[in-house]
Amino acid sequence: MLRHKSEVLDSWCATVGRDPNEIERSTAVRGRPGAAAEELVELGITLFTLSASGPLYDLGSLADWVAWRDRHNAAV
User: Which domain holds residue 54?
Assistant: First the structure.
């Protein structure tokens, strides 16, 4: 689904003469990053949002995403 939406955005950018790289793409994520994170980056998505609900806020997945981000940015 995100691949299709990204392609639609790229198509509209071409139609109106806008550079699609000027647009920050974002999506909500859940769970652990794993291979999904790399796939999202390949689609041009650079902003990931996570949610946590209480009263027992488990921020374990947030820590995993931050660690993934740091490794990813260090490699770039």
Answer: 2-75
Q: Quick: pLDDT tens for 11-49.
A: 999 999 999 999 999 999 988 998 899 999 999 999 999
If one counts the domains in the chain, the total is 1
Q: Give me the pLDDT at residue 58, please.
A: 84
> Counting runs of H as helices and runs of E as strands, what totals does the chain give?
3, 2
* Residue count of the chain: 76
- Please say whether the beta carbons of 34 and 18 come within 8 A: no
> In this structure, which amino acid lies at residue 37?
A
